[in-house]
Write a structure and sequence with these properties.
Strand content of chain B: 15-25%
Number of domains of chain B: 2
Number of strands of chain A: 8
Low-confidence stretches of chain A: 387-393
Largest interface: A-B, 60 and 58 residues
Shape of chain A: globular
Mean pLDDT of chain B: 88
CATH class of the largest domain in chain B: Alpha Beta
Number of strands of chain B: 17
Number of domains of chain A: 2
Structural class of chain B: alpha/beta
Structural class of chain A: mainly alpha
Oligomer: heterodimer
CATH topology of the largest domain in chain B: Rossmann fold
CATH superfamily of the largest domain in chain B: Response regulator
Helix content of chain B: 25-40%
Radius of gyration of chain B: 24 Å
Chain lengths: ~400, ~450
């Protein structure tokens, strides 16, 4: 079962990822419509698109941070560049995303080359600060100075009097891929109480996410990836052996910038508006959180982290008093009010608190992120099996964990 | 993800199950809905999308209180509030068209991106037919565009930028709140009487659509009474510290500072301006003055002492003495123990106006609702006789000019009404240059799919 130059194990891994991605609209909709738990369903197009898009963003970030250990605090700038590029292509040409997306990757790559060339003269904390400074600079430029290009705080959007030279008479007036309109659903089945939404835009992003995941898998397994890992392990030793690390780090920086640009472009492809706040440092911090939360340096971790954070942002922030009353209605009044009072601190506008607590728990108890959690649970089951076999669990050589997994 | 020991058999099982799930024949219930999120059950869901975090959070939370109150009144709970004084009598407390009103809430974080994400989830997940809210015009413009594309009605909340019903007007979007042009037109005569015609103004402006249009409007109307504009400096939203922007004012030769700020930003900039001693200064032989063109009770509260004697304008104030206002203040006060702010009133009115339009149209279909709202004349919602103009979906009504009270007795009467500017004085043509000129158009209304 070898395929596309992947080992047997990786092929299996890729197939699982593909299946999970394609079945997302079903997996994220575990509760029937109308039940009390339906609030926790996440299988609606906008959120699924976000999962895939931020998954791409985090995969790309992981190529830099996970492999070389260079912590960039400025990746949101590339996200913004990607978004602005795509919206400008809508304004100038037409709503087909085919023009904007490749350009978004190219422009963010060039931008990353520029920022990376300067920032990578330093490493460690100085590198992080430099990237942060560049990103804040881009944000402030987009927010006020470059208003004619970015439309400032209002956000860049398409107006009726824009050029749109390629716009055909019957062309859809929202983003599409050769007539496949992103925000339309191609199938909305209901089984009993369950209803599922299969959205064009989600599958478009999902296919791209799978392709870029495959590329990142190849990078992880390549000699280039090995070199990047060597930089993370001991850059000084690498320098002593006569290898100049900078071209490798710069390449990794540009590649991850291109991933971020692609993610930004896809955001604009799902929703034709680009706002400057996408470039703010909080957005850069978010992708760092996603990667660490999921497990830096692992293939699957950043995607899990992205999903985790976006889920909290979109689902927990929407639980309000009405929903809480619905849940606790069966309790006596005093207890109900007490429970609602306590829950107040964790849902609705306080969702950040819940996320913060979980983040702390993960970092303290699972330094390897959610992926480590998964491995420990899997380990528990495996141990049970082997102890039955009579072998001595204390005396066997420990497996060396593979850094890329 | 290294230790996923998945067997070939297991994988095939999963694959087969997934395949079977996908291939199962299904009943296509979606069928041909006439419009987006057509309510088919016994309930109808409205979306309240307000800032619960960020610089405008106070306003957002007060809006949410009013929206919840409106839902109660529509469902026949409570004392009915302004439904009793509203000139249209089709709402009878049985929900909308016999469907019980439910609502979902979302946090816009005072950011366009977050607001659109929240609005999208309301449309796609919760199936709302109308979205109400949006403190900050940037957010309102962004969400209005989204509602237009998705084919649902947007009833704007607190948005004061000319662009919302000007350059960025949309057929599916409606605004009850007044706008920057109206503020300028109402304030100028009062400022002329109070401070004379020979003044030099320095503007500090929030750097986004609302700030730009308000600054433009105030500059135009003050220059019309003979004032001179010394400088206009843009400040980022949510800056927190404005001292570096205020220091240069001292040496600019200006004798009036116009703060085009709102919410937490205005509280900070006004407080810092007073701390810098601006109001104790004499410039060009005149007392230095500060003007805050757009006021709210919550801001006045936050700024405390510093607000005394400062002029500004408002859409509505709880101290008005008409029947609608009294009824609303009473039911709001009984439920929350405080008088409502003007952002609360506009959101309440918008929710009631939507419900009324649906009932008069006999359908939730966006185009029918829009037609019912266009050109609608009503009274009894606290602002006196009001017109929903068909050309730009803007409400036209009286504007209040306010002043920080010298001797407030409670924390809620820190502002006093100086003048009620009649609607004729603030009316403008739909193709006014500040509102996108002749090019601006609503486009076609969209029912979605």
């Amino acid at each position: 079962m070898k395929f596309l130059g992947l080992s047997r194990k990786d092929t299996r891994f890729l197939i699982i990822v593909i299946l999970l991605t394609l079945a997302t609209p079903i997996l994220l909709q575990p509760f029937p419509e109308g039940s009390g738990l339906a609030t926790f369903n996440a299988g609606y197009p906008d959120l699924m698109q976000r999962f895939a898009i931020f998954g791409i963003f985090a995969i790309g970030f992981n190529i830099l941070f996970g492999l070389t250990g260079y912590l960039s605090f400025g990746h949101a700038a590339f996200l913004g560049v990607g978004s602005y590029t795509v919206v400008w292509m809508y304004k100038l040409l037409d709503y087909n995303v085919i023009w904007g997306l490749p350009l978004a990757v190219i422009f963010s790559g060039l931008f990353a080359l520029l920022i990376g060339y300067v920032s990578l003269r330093r490493s460690g904390i100085y590198f992080s600060i430099l990237t942060l400074a560049f990103a804040q600079m881009s944000y402030n430029l987009a927010y006020s100075v470059l208003t004619p290009i970015t439309n400032g705080e209002t956000g860049l959007q398409v107006y009726g009097n824009d050029a749109q030279v390629l716009l055909g008479a019957n062309e859809p007036t929202s983003p599409h891929f050769f007539g496949i309109v992103m925000r339309e659903n191609f199938w909305e089945p209901t089984f009993g109480g369950w209803s599922f939404t299969f959205n064009n835009g989600y599958y478009f992003t999902a296919v791209i996410a799978i392709i870029v995941f495959y590329i990142s898998l190849r990078i992880f397994r390549s000699p280039f990836g090995l070199m990047l890992r060597a930089i993370k392990t001991n850059q000084t030793r690498l320098n002593y052996t006569g290898i100049n690390a900078r071209p490798y780090t710069l390449a990794a920086f540009v590649i991850s910038g291109m991933y971020a640009g692609l993610a930004g472009g896809l955001m604009a492809a799902m929703d034709p508006l680009a706002g400057a706040e996408r470039m703010q440092w909080t957005a850069s911090g978010e992708v760092v959180l996603m990667t660490i939360l999921g497990g830096a340096g692992t293939l699957m971790g950043p995607i899990l982290g992205a999903g985790f954070i976006k889920y909290f942002e979109n689902i927990f922030s929407k639980i309000n008093d009405q929903v809480l009353h619905g849940w606790f209605a069966f309790l006596p009044d005093g207890l109900e009010d007490f429970l609602i009072g306590v829950s107040h601190f964790f849902v609705g506008k306080s969702w950040h608190l819940t996320l913060g607590l979980l983040f702390m728990l993960v970092v303290i108890f699972l330094p390897g992120g959610l992926v480590e959690g998964g491995q420990r649970i899997a380990g528990l089951f495996r141990k049970k099996k082997t102890t039955g076999g009579g072998g001595d669990p204390e005396h066997h050589p420990k497996e060396t964990p593979h850094v890329a997994e | 993800m290294s230790k996923t020991n998945i067997t070939r058999r297991g994988l095939m099982k999963t694959g087969a199950a997934t395949g079977a799930g996908l291939a199962l024949p299904t009943i296509f219930t979606s069928g041909a809905a006439a419009f987006t999120n057509e309510p088919t059950g016994s309930t109808v869901t409205l979306g309240f999308n307000v800032p619960q975090t960020g610089p405008y959070a106070d306003e957002g939370i007060d809006e949410l209180r009013a929206q919840q109150l409106a839902v109660e009144h529509l469902n026949g709970e409570g004392d009915g509030g302004m439904l009793n004084t509203f000139s249209s009598k089709v709402l009878d407390g049985t929900g909308i068209l016999g469907k019980k009103v439910e609502y979902v809430t979302g946090d816009t974080q005072t950011k366009s991106d977050a607001a659109r994400a929240s609005a999208k989830s309301m449309i796609e997940k919760d199936g709302v037919v109308m979205i109400n809210g949006g403190s900050s015009s940037g957010v309102a413009v962004a969400v209005q565009g989204l509602c237009q594309e998705a084919g649902i009605i947007f009833m704007a909340g607190l948005t004061h930028s000319n662009d919302t019903t000007g350059k960025d007007r949309k057929a599916n979007g409606f605004r009850h709140f007044f706008n920057a042009y109206m503020s300028g037109a109402a304030l100028a005569p009062v400022l002329k009487n109070a401070y004379g015609t020979d003044r030099r103004a320095y503007h500090l402006t929030a750097d986004y659509t609302w700030g730009w249009t308000q600054q433009e409007s105030i500059q135009a109307s003050t220059e019309a009474i003979g004032w001179e504009t010394v400088n206009n400096v843009m400040t980022p939203v949510g800056a927190g510290d404005f001292s570096s922007y205020i220091a240069p004012v001292l040496n600019s030769g200006a004798d009036v500072l116009v703060l085009n700020h709102y919410g937490g930003d205005m509280i900070n900039s006004l407080t810092q301006a007073v701390q810098f001693g601006l109001r104790d200064k004499q410039v060009n032989g005149k007392q230095f003055e500060i003007v805050v063109p757009l006021y709210s009770e919550l801001m006045a509260n936050g700024a405390g002492e510093n607000i005394k004697g400062v002029y500004g304008s408002m859409n509505w104030n709880w101290q008005l003495q008409d029947e609608g206002t009294k009824a609303f203040v009473k039911s709001f006060g009984e439920k929350y123990g405080r008088p409502p702010s003007n952002s609360a009133q506009t959101c309440y009115a918008q929710t009631i106006l939507y419900a009324d339009a649906v009932t008069r149209a006999g359908s939730f279909e966006p185009c029918a609702v829009a037609a019912a709202l266009e050109g609608f004349e009503f009274d009894g919602l606290g602002n006196g006789p009001t017109l929903y103009r068909a050309e730009d979906h803007q409400c036209f009504k009286d504007v209040l000019v306010m002043k920080g009270a010298e001797n407030p007795t409670t924390e809620y009467d820190t502002l006093e009404i100086v003048e009620i500017t009649p609607v004729d004085q603030v009316t403008y043509a739909p193709d006014h240059a500040m509102f996108g000129g002749a090019e601006a158009s609503l486009g076609a209304c969209n029912n979605g799919a």
